[in-house]
Amino acid sequence: MATALITHADGLDHVTPSGHPERVARLEHVLHALQPLELQRVTAREASEEELLRCHPQSYIDRVRNAVPERGQHQLDSDTWLSPGSFRAASRAAGGACQAVDMVLGGEVANVFCATRPPGHHAERETPMGFCLFGTAAIAAKHALEHHGLSRVAVVDFDVHHGNGTQDLLWDEARALFITSQQMPLWPGSGAPEQRGAHDNVMNLPLPPETGGAEMKTRYEAEAFPRLRAFDPELLIISAGFDAHQDDPLANLNWTVEDFRWITEQLCEIAQTSAAGGRVVSTLEGGYDLAGLSASAKAHVEVLMEAGA
Ligand SMILES: [Zn+2]
Q1: Average pLDDT value over all residues in the chain
Q2: In what order do the strands lie in the sheet with 235-240?
């Protein structure tokens, strides 16, 4: 068994305005950092309409598609932009994650890292938000549940921002457990522990600013990991954002590369000893310091490779 890297050059065709933190260089730096690793490299497919429709209504998909400009850029909200290649890039991010689910459930590889952009975890059912167009991680979870017939899928989101979109998309989904940690207070402001989902299927772990990796480890060990083990997922999806890194310009959680390595090791160990049998799909979310992002993503993928060997 091996680890696959799913990506596509279309991810570089989603072009944001100069100075925007969610920029083409992010994906270039991640791919450069992963270059030396012996990964099974796979081209991301586009998502089918059916796959997108599991999380977003047709009217929303059409609205995003129709808002794509022929040239230049179109602004959807204060943070979220479209360029001519954006729909295809977001479609490949969602499609690549579904393809990753197909690959791990088909026994082709042990686990997958999807290096795609734009990120997805802020996109709500009918609202693009925070650089995100489609709810990639939730779409992958729904694909595993609806298409493959799994009965328990867990999504863990360690991006420094609240995964409000994934929470919205999985709120009513009793077959999914969504665990998300986030700096609080921080944009978008949601993610309090009282937000538990319609079936007590959402766990929010707010982390105070400047607390660092030690607090993260304590909270995950005390709250997230026992909950995840008890759920006994058949598949683990990771929303892998690396903006909790100490050098990230958008947040102040001060995690190190070793902290990202640690949390990945723990999640892989739980996946190995649960019904998932080691099956992990990880998809890139945030991370805006290019050096911190690429070093953390590389450490994350190295752990996936060790776990999948
Ligand atoms: Zn983020």
Answers
A1: 98
A2: 40-43, 3-7, 111-115, 280-284, 235-240, 153-157, 176-183, 202-207
